[in-house]
């Protein structure tokens, strides 16, 4: 497999003007401004092969969007190296800029007051797409996304989901080899989210393009990505398969026990693990993975059990745990 | 397959022109109302200067700016302003807004010159009506003067109007670019109005202890005074020898302005790329 | 009463810090305001010079300079940047609803906010204004007598009232007509021309003067300035003040009526 993205020690620090609240501060601020440095990305290493679908996960301000902007050459890094498709992104060669696309869920690049097709035609000119190829790509995308009836409607009259479909078409018209998606499903309802996911999966699988996606929705990620990169405070804390998160961070299992007797107060199970909830006749405890077997046999021996289940903790919880671990590390250092 | 060799700039420009026309046609009422308003304003201006010429035959003793010649001057003001309002001012407003809202990213990743993109994306066709109004005033004044300009005069007039527009463009680009440092430039419109105020009067009024410094500052530092004056003189007063130095200067300074404003623009973009996240 | 006062204080403070946040913009804006005066003065100097300094419409060079300086004061009271546009925008995007739900009166609230903004503006613009008037004091014949100063104060109050309520009325037209930006543009041009912002109304031909005299626009710029310069006799002054008072009340009423009818229409549509 060819290496599409190769990032080494990528770092981005930016300055923000510290605005203070209130009247007095504003008066003092008349004279000088105070800045402080904010590290957005701190030494990221990342290798992505052609055809991979990689998810960036992280809390707000973790550096996900900044990384995408760096890789698309919009902003310059403070330090570090990166090559994408053999180009250095921040050299901003047109040859590179024709080979990727960036879609941001919170910003739109289509002309607000015009039908989407006018924006598409503008893209054709800017990206120098041959008419024949343009028509072919456009028809195909319109077909798959089922938007043929909306092409002549001003973008401002479209729903959020319809607009996102149009944004995707605009981004894909020049058949990019890499697609950067920054929260493409933000604010969409469940049906629209599902449609966009389906489309992305289909498009990525048929074209074998490389996709980097950031999202807050676990659904997006479980539906689309095999590989997950967890970023917090500008550093990578996990890079691997979705399942691997469970192995690495899911050090415990959730054990749910249902007692046979319809009793008011079920026996105390806290000696086996952390009790999560007691809803008679059901008790849920968190048990270290290594002790699951022994706890299970103990419980089954000593109590009259109607039903029992052992589950992995929900993915969200594990990721939240990674985030808080990252925050602790940051504070410690 | 994607890389045909000819530059896409002309194609893109024409698409911009077309898209903007489509957009304005969807707000037809506004389009017409705006055109009417601007024409009305020019009418008021003419009325005002007509009023002055009821009290005097000339503005500035010995300046040569008689009523009809002054109307040539006003016609030039209208044409230059109209070109600016049609092509460049709306773009610069949009640009400073993009900076303010942090929406510049899309423009930065297109495979095309960024300055080109932000200079021509918007066109306000309704403002072009004033250009033709200006031509009307010009023809009226020339007929009243009973004066037929030579072909050379007309060609030079057109060239100097374009050079003037280039100077104005450079100034407004520099102003819009400064939004990157100032954070907000909501009053770009106002600033633009005030700065160009000086360009709307003949050079001859800038005398005395108050006027002379202004004349120098706005000829040599922010060279907006030559924008209208040089072409208007060519058309209203003919090709006079004593006007040549300023005319030559205008050619140089317009090229220098374009060059410097582009430098500033690129510098600002570098700042933006390094400072923002 | 104290609740009312604390709300006032709050609005005032918010306005002040808003202005201070964008101070570079503000400072430049205030300075730029004087630029057109300079060109006007130079223009009139050139015009007068072409007739050997003979006054036009009773104005010699000093009068012209004094007039344009005084007009900036009138405009500091009567201009309402963003008022009408702000109202129409709130109507269009539905933010107007909050005035229908909360116990706040739209016009009252906007008036308070505007007064606060104006006070902040006078506070911050005092120094540049003082400097300019100090530099230009020789163009004035000296202070007018106290009774005229009093009348001047009243005329400035009218300038504020007419400016505010006229523009508020215009903004409220947005209830009926969503796209009022062109209308506002024309209003701006008419104001600029008919208010005397561009030139002292005395230079108009005699047959046109009455039109300007009975329109409300002259109170936004010309009237206070001419009053200060004692360009009118006592009878004209008294009459002018009565007409100014009439227009203030008139536009106060139109704004209230427009608001009441507009709200009725708005809630009739179900917003």
With helices defined by DSSP (H or I, 4 residues minimum), what is the helix count of chain C? 12
- Count of DSSP E strands of chain A? 13
Going by CATH, the homologous superfamily of the largest domain in chain A would be P-loop containing nucleotide triphosphate hydrolases
The percentage helix of chain A is: 25-40%
- Overall pLDDT of chain A, averaged? 87
Instruction: State the name of the first-level CATH class of the largest domain in chain A.
Output: Alpha Beta
Choose one word for the global shape of chain A: globular
Class based on secondary structure composition and strand pairing of chain C: mainly alpha
Extended strand count of chain C: 0
Rg of chain A (C-alpha, Å): 25 Å
The CATH topology of the largest domain in chain A is what?
A: Rossmann fold
Give the amount of beta strand of chain A, in percent.
25-35%
Characterise the protein shown here.
The complex is a heterotrimer of chains A (333), B (277) and C (271). Chain A is α/β, with parallel strands linked by helices. Chain A is built from 11 helices and 13 strands. In chain A, the strands form 3 sheets. In chain A, strands 5-6-7-3-8-9 form a 6-stranded mixed β-sheet, sandwiched between helices. A 4-stranded antiparallel β-sheet of chain A has the order 11-12-10-13, covered by helices on one side. In chain A, strands 2-1-4 form a 3-stranded antiparallel β-sheet, with helices on one face. The model of chain A has no long low-confidence stretch (mean pLDDT 87). Chain B has helices at residues 9-26, 28-55, 67-100, 105-108, 114-120, 129-145, 151-177, 179-182, 188-197, 208-221, 225-237, 244-275. Chain B has 12 helices and no strands. In chain B, helix 3 runs antiparallel to helix 6, helix 7 (151-177) packs antiparallel against helix 11 and helix 7 (151-177) packs parallel to helix 12 (244-275). The two termini of chain B are 35 Å apart. Chain C has one domain (2-268). Chain C has helices at 2-21, 23-32, 35-49, 61-78, 83-92, 97-101, 106-135, 146-172, 181-194, 209-214, 222-228, 234-268. The two termini of chain C are 33 Å apart. The model of chain C has no long low-confidence stretch (mean pLDDT 87). Chains in contact: A-B, A-C, B-C.
